[in-house]
C-alpha cells in the first residue's frame, strides 16, 4: 500500500508539471496571436485586445512561477525529504520514532547523554522507549568521538552515557546495544530508526538540539552518503 502511495505521488507530480507546461504553451501561443492582432488592429478593437494581452502576460508570469515551484517540489519528493527542521525536535518527536522501530536504531553524535536520559533512564517510567525497543529485539548502535575530542563538560556526559549503555548491554536479553568511538572530531549528527532518518551537521559549541536537521527516508539518495559514512565509521571505530 505504501509503495502504491509513493508511486502515485511521483506520477501525480510528473502529470502536474506536464499539464502546467501544456497550459503554459497554450497561453504563450495565445499571447503571441493577440500581440499580432493588436499590431494590426484599428482604434475600436485595440483597447480590448490590449486588455486581453495584458491578462495573458500576467497569467504567463504566474504559470512560470507555478511551474518552477512544482519542479522544486518534485525534486523534494524524489529525494524523499519529509521535512527540513530549523532545529532538532524535542523528546516527543524522537520518542515516536524509537517506539515505532522494529529492526534497528543507529545514532552518531557527541555524547548520547540526552538520548540515553530521554529513552533509557534507570528510574523514570516515562523514559523507557529505548529499553522497550530492545525488548522487541531492536539492534541499537551508538557512535561517538573519543574523549580527546570532547570538551570537559562533554567528557563527563559521555562517561555517564558509556556507563549506562554498558549496564543496559549487560541486562539485555533480546535486542543488542553497542557503543563505539571514532578518533576525530564529530562532523555529523545521524539518527536512523528503521526507514526514518534525521541527518544534520555538528557545530562546535552549539548544542545538538539547536542545530538544523533533515527528516528523510533511509532509501533516499539524500540519506545514502550519510548511511555509508556511518557504516564506514562503525567499521573503523573501537568498541567500548
TrEMBL record:
UniProtKB keywords: Membrane, Transmembrane, Transmembrane helix
Q: Where are the transmembrane segments?
A: 21-38, 44-65
Source organism superkingdom: Bacteria
| Keyword Transmembrane tagged | yes
- The name on file for this protein is Uncharacterized protein
Q: Which organism is it from?
A: Pontiella desulfatans
